[in-house]
Each structure stands twice: as structure tokens, then as C-alpha cells.
């Protein structure tokens, strides 16, 4: 009586959300301080002060309809102009307001872009495993097919030789995500040059544009002075899907953008199709107050140092115990080897010690768990005892 | 190279947006005070004070992640509980938090509901002409077919006998919109009883649920003490799509809900499919700050009296000049007979006097113009001269 596909999507909550809800219920029984919830990527570091200040200033100085009224569907012109200017200063590029389409966050950015680019049901989008599980949902909604290519298990960089084999005539685009959720890896210059070379070669071979869709909500969440390369510098046919959810700790506010540089093949057609896809999916405009807020906060971020100290604390602690994981350069996740082949069983065992860690199966890369460290550092300290017990369980067994 | 369908949707701006943009350009030449822009439904009456007050209070008393963090996909529980309680008090019903799914406004409410209900590409949704043009876009996005049934040209109530002929085995649901955009009509008790009777009979005949989708962004924008009936009291299989855009003058903030009462057939399945459809379309959650804001403003509205005085001013003024239109009971539009058969040409002629009025063709009901009166009353007064000139043009011609 209802759409079977939508019913199943609604009934099968993501494994992340499932653990998160389990944690809330268990906390009610054993006490919140005894639950070690590393499940969800909900930033705990507060939004920077400029967010609060700019909201209050806007409310006090602007007329109601100037703040809360419809903006144009692509977003307020002044907002987009200011983002363009900021990006031009940061990346030495030549962007204009017309290159930006404001969205309700990264999920909207991706859904809209994929819908705009999908021409036929034979179209394929390639994703690199481990990947954010919702990519599958958004590609399916656009009416295209998902092709997953595994990253290098040593360092989680792209295996360009494997990617090459996956590209065929039906490939419309490749989604990349650096800094990566869940691995925390930042793609190196070497990876990007190699990727760009491949895509240029393959575009020529198939005589069609291959779009690189760069999903960048973690662009500013990087450590040890690492710089995240500006992808269009490496490959022209790049569309950036951005969100302020993580950089400004505003995940619930749903604010981000799609950036289509002018040198993208058929850039104006892509932009027009993006406008159409946004309209088709029911996005009238991005939330108007927060369009203005992010304009006032360009270049600002939440206090990344807090995530960095969490990263060190957890990485060092788990390493000492003998857990294995690649040291992350960005985002706020550790991607740790499961102590048994089946990560779902491993995650279940972890629950015995009230340790909530996400099995990697839905990320398309079995045998790991994702540990989100955008949490209270005190919880990390308390959790080591549980991590040790979990380790002991496997050593004694 | 991009989706043709999305490109066309992006390239063909709605006629309303087209006029609106034309007005902005023309204003730059002849001066804003000489343009009479009745094109767009962007509320001019400010949001009530409770909006500003509750935002500032939330910012000052709550932690950043309590305001800006992800809520659950269906919306914050407390918010939904409070809306349910408010509705129970107002309509004497028995709603719970679980009946509500918070959305990014009415367009999202409709897109998600239609996607959740569409089972096959043979499915049909019936809309009553004149209708909001985007209904066609959202139904198409869901993969279903649009069937339009004309309203009674005398009073714009539903012609239930015509609707009866349009319902067949493929009908999944009917979208109604009362108070109506563009006609301003509020469906009478008589209409609703007759509609409910028909739908019950037809559900039995075809042995399947027929869903009534009630799009109610103008529920509170009514005049002369009129009460908008609570549709589920008349017909159980009613799903309400609501938005705070108009009642609280927050159109840019994208905040609304889907209400699925428990007595709807397969209510839990419909709700689950709605969750799935929201996920599929890329809606992660409704904007978190404004979820809390509308909770603090339940029962409040912008100052409707201002729209009412505009309504009287414009209706009386145009009537005196000999324009013909049904007196609207709600919303903020007059739906006026075109002075020639082709309303597109009529709207073009109106432009000669810098009068921007929307031809009704895209509303599925040719021969009219929609005049939006959520505008500055001074503009209405200045516009009468132009309306008179337009009338003279036709009398002299």
C-alpha cells in the first residue's frame, strides 16, 4: 500500500542510528557515564561565537523579511558572492556567485548533483570503499547504479589501477570524500594527480565528461598543519559538495552548497540542471537565516584543537593496547581493525562493555569498526577500561 | 550531458519567479515606487515577536549542540509532542508525537509524502485546478501521473461529480489546498462532506485506500472569523502537509511537518515510508533551531489583520473598476478574470503599466490572473491608476 522501496529505507535504520538509539536506552538503565558512545558524528565542540553573534546582530538590525523571506532558489546573491570571494582568497581561484548553489547541507548537495547528472538508468557512479553509506541511497534515488572500488587497505588512498578497471562507457562520475569518513585519510597530492590523469585519459577515451564529485564536509577538520588540496586545481570537471555541518558545528541547521567552477564541461548546463533537480526534490531554497550566518563566519571554524587532542588520546591509547588503525589526518573518526573477521559480531561483543562502535560493513569495507571521537574527552578516558576488556575477551578466547 | 528533464526544469523558471525577476530589473530603471509587483507570495508582514525572542532565548540558555545538533530524522521528540498537544487542544483530536514528521517546509512535505505513497508508475494523483504549479513537479518526481480536475468556476469549490469521474483504479490520492493558492477559497463543510463521502465510496469500490493529501500552509490566513475545518474529522485517510512559511512569515527558513493521524489506513507503514522517502531525497532533518522556535510560537501568527485590510482595499478597488473576482476567504491572493481570453497576453499588457500580475495558465485554469496582496498597502493604492489604465486599454480597444 506504500512504496516498498521507501518503506524498507525507512524501516532499516542505518547501523549508526541504531547504535545511537541503543546507547540512549542503555544509558537510562546503567547511567550515562557508563555508556561509551562512539557511534555518531554529531560535533560536540560548540559552534564558534560568530554564529551566535551574527544571528543576534541580524535579528537586531535587519527587517524580518530580509532575514526570513525566500531567497532565490540558488541562494542569496550577496551570500554566494562572499563565499566566492573567500574561496578566491584562499585557493587563488576565480569563482563568482554564479558558480555556487546554496543547499540544505551535504546530503542535499549530493542528492541534487547526482539527480542533475543522471541521464539514463544505465549511468554509473563510482564510490571508493570505505564510503559514507548514504551515497548508495542518493545514487539510487537519482536512478543510477553504484559501483564500489576498494581503497588501499594500507593507507586508504585510492587504488587508481582498480578504479581504472571500474570505469566504463556508463560511468558518469566518481564521488570522493577527503578528509574521509570513516577512515580519516586525506588524499595526497600523488593520489590526486594520479586520479586526475586517469580521469582525463578516460574522458578522452570515451569522448565524454567524467565528473569528479568531491564531498567535502570535513575540509577544515585536519591536523598537524595538513592542507587539503583544492581539487579543481587537479581536475577541471570537479563539482564540490560542501556543508558547514562539521566546520561550524551546525549539522542540524542544514546549510551547505554545490560549487560548479566555470571551467567544468557544460558548466552552465550542469548549473541549470542542478537548479532543476533542487526544484524537483522539493528544495525551495537553503535556510535563509543561516545563509546570512555562514556569510558572517567565512573562514571561522569550531575549535579543531579539541578534536585533535581527542584524536591523540584515543589513537595512542588504543595503539598501546594493540589495536591497529591508520593514524587519521582529518575528520573525527578512527577506523580500527576488528579483532575478529566479522565486525558485526565484534561490535556486538563491544556492547557487552557498553562500548558502542560501528561495524564497517555498511561502509562497504568489512572487518573494521568506526570510532567517532567528536565526544567528551572524559568519556574517552573512561572508555579505555572497556576497550581493554574487549581486547582481553579475544586474547583469552 | 546532463539530465534533460532536470535541465528543462531548471531552465524554465516558474512564471511567478520570471515576473518577480523582471520586476526587480525594471525597478532599477523606473524606480521601485513605480513598479506594482503582485507576483510572488513572499509574506511582507513581519514574523511575530515570539520568533525573535525565542531565538535569542535559545541562544542564551541552551548549549550549542542542543540547538544546532542533528535531531532525529523525524524531528525532535519534544517539538513533535508539543505540536501534538497544541493540535489536540485546538481540534479536539488525539495526536501524539509519533504522528508527526518534521520537514523543510511544505514543498518537502509534499515531495516526501508523494514519494512515500507512489507504488508504481501507473499511480495517479488528482489535483484540483487552479492548483499550485509545483504539484506537477513533485508528483512527477515521485514517478506518478498527474490528473487535474477543474474546480467550479463560480466559487472554486470542488466539483465532486467531476472528481468522481476522474477517480479510477490507479488513483492513489487527491491533493487539496484550502485556503487555496491561487483562488483564496476555503472549502466549505458541504464540499468536505461530499468529498469525504465520495472517497469512502470509491475506496470501497476499488478495495484500496485513497489518501487525501491536505496541503495547508494558509490554514491560519483566513478572514471574517472563518474557521478552516480539520480535514481528518471528515475523512480518516487524510495526511496533512503543513508549513510555517506563511503563518509565521518564515518562508525562507523551510520548516513544516507531515501529519499522519493513527487512524489513517496502514498509518505506521505510511509513516515508515515517509521516513524512507525523506532519507532518499536527502533530507537529514528539518532545520534544528527553527524546530525549537516554532515550538515556542505555537498558536501565534503574523498580524493577519494587515493582509485583511489589503484584501478589502484591493478587492473593493478592483470591483469598483469592473474587474471580476470571487471574494477570497483566505490566503493572500485575488484570482481575477482576465480582460481577454488569453491571460498571458493580458499579463503582458499589464506590464506596460508596470503592473506585475501572474497569468493563470500554469495554475491549470486559463483566463485569470493571480494578484498576490501580501504587499505594502501604499503600493496597492498607487497601483489603482495602473489597473484603471489597463481596464481603459481594453474598453477603448
Automatic annotation (TrEMBL), chains A, B:
Cofactor: pyridoxal 5'-phosphate
Main EC class the enzyme belongs to: transferase
Superkingdom of the organism of origin: Bacteria
Its EC number(s): 2.6.1.-
Name by which UniProt lists this protein: Aminotransferase
Record keywords: Aminotransferase, Transferase
GO terms assigned for molecular function: transaminase activity
UniProt keyword annotation of Transferase present: yes
Family: Belongs to the class-I pyridoxal-phosphate-dependent aminotransferase family.
Transmembrane regions: none
Segments forming domain Aminotransferase class I/classII large: 34-382
